[in-house]
Amino acid sequence: MMNTWIVFCAVILLVLSVAWLFYVVMKYGEKEELISHMRTIAYERIALRDDYTIFRNERSAIQWREKTEDLKKILEEASSVFTEKEERAILKEARDHFNATESLFSQFLEYEKRKDFRRPGFDEKEERLIGQVFLRAYSLRDRLSRLHKLTHHKLETTINNGIIIVIIFFIVGGIGITINSFITNLTISKRIELLEVGIGIIGQGNLDYTVDDKGDDEFAELARSFNEMAAKLKASYTSIENLEKEIVARKHIEDLLKYEMERFSILIKNAPFGMVLLDSQGKFLYINPKFKEIFGYDLTEIPDGRTWFRKAFPDPEYRNKAISIWIDNIKAHAKGEPRPRSFAVTCKDEKKKIIDFIAIEFETGAQIITCVDITERTKAEEKISQQLDELQRWHNATLGREMRILELKAEVNELCKRLGEPPRYESAEEKEGGGTKGS
Hints:
- This protein is of the alpha+beta class and 439 residues long.
- It folds into three domains: 2-179, de novo design (two linked rop proteins) (Up-down Bundle), CATH 1.20.1440.210; 271-373, PAS domain (Beta-Lactamase), CATH 3.30.450.20; 382-438.
- The chain contains eleven helices and five strands; from the N terminus they run ααααααββαααβββαα.
- Strands 2-1-5-4-3 form a five-stranded antiparallel β-sheet, with helices on both faces.
- The radius of gyration is 63 Å and the shape is elongated.
């Protein structure tokens, strides 16, 4: 890990150094380019000046003024580029010499305009101006050359310093990695020796021994793993008896489960009602003998719920109704809750039976369904209902006849009263009163 950090820091410093070196090289490259441009314009001004002084070419004078303006702008721009003290001093001298050449040669040009061109050669004043122009122009070129050499020298120095810094980074990083590797090897050797001693002690059976696991490196993690392994071994050794007891208890439970399964199998097989087991996909897993006795189908004839509905309800309209009721019944009841429902089912022999179904769905999606044939009971209930209806009709008819007799007796008594004869029948009130007195 330490070597990684050393390499990481060295790479970061190297990248920063290279970036700084690149910045400085670009900066001095810009300066050299600017100086080269100034030197080129300075040489062009000299050539135009000489051409005018020899041939008196007015075009050369115009071009000299244009180059002078260009060089003046570049010198102003250079003031913001050359910011070091020595560079600014040389640039100031170059600017002074440039101003002098501009002023002197401009005076020469003005004097030439007033001079009589018929006079050959230069007079004393012209010679003095030209001499000063030559001297100042030479000084200007010298200052530009010195500025160029200074810039180039600083560029070379910067590159050399950058290379030295990179070499120093490599050397220091290599030394750091070497020292750290040496220290790491010593530490690793010591930690491995301690691990070997601890493993030997644990291997001899001393499971209470713990390896020193201080620290957060890989060896500390390995030591903690050995300690955990020793603790688990100790726990496994001390729990052998408990494991044997658990095995005996588990075998006893398995025997009980096997016994209960046998009882459940016998119960299903001999149940007085039909039973069917379905998986979560609606596939029939088992049907008991009573189911086959009721409907006449075996497991090969109704392998799933879809086939069952098609055979049990051949009428499409009634089948769709039964399926809809069955689905709604599932939605209306929670898992584990009985779902009773009765349907008219067509058996294999095409007889129709009224079957009372009770379905229970488990958490796994499997279902167990019981089927009870209630056809005879339904017929008996219908017969009893018909008899009760007949009895009710007879009772209503008898009650109506008695009421009519009472009404006729009351009418006869009313006619006797009108004729002045005593009533022939006792009224209901008199019968009730007589009965009360007698009691």
